[in-house]
Amino acid sequence: MSHYLFDSDAAQTAGRFSALEACYDPVSRRQLELIGPTTGWRCLEVGGGSASLGDWLGERVGTEGEVTVTELEPRWAASRHRPDHVRLLRHDIVHDPLPGTDYDLVHARLVLLHLPERLEVLQKLVGALRPGGWLVLEEFDCGWTPVLAAPDSSSAALFDRVHAALMSLLRTAGADPLWGRRVLGAMAAAGLRDLTASTYAEAWPGGSAGIALHRHNVDQVSGRLTASGVSTTELDRFRALLHHPDFVINSYPLISVRGRRPPRKEQDDPQTLRGVAPAATRGAAAADDPAGP
Ligand SMILES: C[S@@+](CC[C@H](N)C(=O)[O-])C[C@H]1O[C@@H](n2cnc3c(N)ncnc32)[C@H](O)[C@@H]1O
Predict the structure, then answer these.
(1) pLDDT score at 172
(2) pLDDT at 285
(3) Which pLDDT belongs to residue 264?
(4) Pocket flag, ligand 1, residue 47 (CB < 6 Å)
(5) Per-residue model confidence (pLDDT) at position 268
(6) Average pLDDT of each block of 10 consecutive residues along the chain (293 residues)?
(7) Helical H segments across 71-182, by residue range
(8) CA 26, CA 52: separation in Å to the nearest integer?
(9) In a mutational test of the pocket of ligand 1, which residue from 4, 56, 94, 140 has the highest number of ligand atoms less than 8 Å from its CB?
(10) What residues does 174 pair with on adjacent strands?
């Protein structure tokens, strides 16, 4: 059973997916373009939400390639038409067997953060890659959301209080709100190489597409927030603040990390398995990897 706090069956899901698409799809596409998915690639998009990125990958790989988009609740993504080479699956990445292996690219955004079993799932995703294949994980660091401007002094304190209560609910559900800052280390420990990370954040003014993410999140769990001590008056003031043009917060920073599974020769090299890759071995491994960019 999933413990995902923001159950994707709820009405707020459509708004959450729209906000994520509007704010972060351009960032994710740029990150994926750095790897260069191209004609014929096999891709796995895990917990794909609206499947907007899976559909975009489908355009990149064309009909000679394939994209599998998995999702615990695929009904939102199912409302969009897509070509046959983009497959949408109802699938639980924690409990179900992988839908395939030997992927050129596996991507997940804002999924492992929510899963108590994130390290086991990470290992599973690494195992889904072909030698030399890429894993791209993009996750929030929810620990840096400063208020950048506020109409009065009490507004920043109110935002911080309600946001802290939301983070507490996430932690209780098994999420790690700081997972973004741990991803690169976890991917290194899982045996991936050529690791690179970059972080994206922007200002979200009241009324913007991005700040609506907070509204959808709070609306979905308002009952649990009041049970945890946030008053309904505070929640109403919080919602009003999110529409106030003089209120500006930092977006959630999205940390995008990419790394690749060692090519086969390197995997087979006992020195490499101990984390010591002599330059000559690395060169030979790269030459052995024709599909690698
Ligand atoms: C915050 S949303 C992110 C959606 C999408 N990846 C994006 O960035 O727009 C988290 C998604 O993970 C999905 N999810 C949660 N637990 C999952 C699981 N065990 N297996 C597959 N998907 C899961 C949810 O249904 C939800 O769509």
Answers:
(1) 96
(2) 32
(3) 80
(4) yes
(5) 57
(6) 76 91 97 97 97 98 98 94 97 97 98 98 98 98 97 95 97 97 98 98 97 95 96 97 97 98 73 39 32 34
(7) 75-78, 118-127, 153-172
(8) 11
(9) 4
(10) none
Domains in the chain: boundaries: 13-266
Nearest residue to 259 via CA among 106, 128, 111, 134: 134
Q: What is the pLDDT of residue 11?
A: 84
Any atom of ligand 1 within 6 Å of the Cβ of 61:
no
Evaluate: CB of 93 within 6 angstroms of ligand 1. yes
Q: Which atom of ligand 1 is nearest to the CA of 93?
A: 20
pLDDT value, residue 10: 82
Which pLDDT does position 266 carry in this prediction?
A: 67
Closest residue to atom 13 of ligand 1, CA basis: 47
Ramachandran angles phi, psi of 193, nearest 5° = -125, 175
Report whether residue 73 contacts ligand 1, using a CB cutoff of 6 Å.
yes
Which residue has the least CA distance to atom 18 on ligand 1? 92
Of residues 43, 292, 111, 132, the one with CA closest to residue 122: 111
Kindly report, residue by residue over 145-176, the tens digit of the pLDDT.
999 999 998 999 999 999 999 999 999 999 99
> 161, exposed or middle or buried, with CB in 10 Å at 0-12, 13-18, 19+?
middle
Type and span of the H or E element at 279: helix 279-287
* Architecture field, domain 13-266: 3-Layer(aba) Sandwich (3.40)
- Please indicate whether residue 8, judged by its CB atom, sits closer than 6 Å to ligand 1: yes
Q: What is the pLDDT of residue 74?
A: 96
Does the beta carbon of 92 sit less than 6 angstroms from any atom of ligand 1?
yes
Among the listed residues 59, 179, 58, 159, the one whose alpha carbon sits nearest the alpha carbon of residue 117? 179
Place of tokens 């101990």: 274
Structure token digits, residue 280: 């000559």
Ligand 1 in contact with 20 (CB < 6 A)? yes
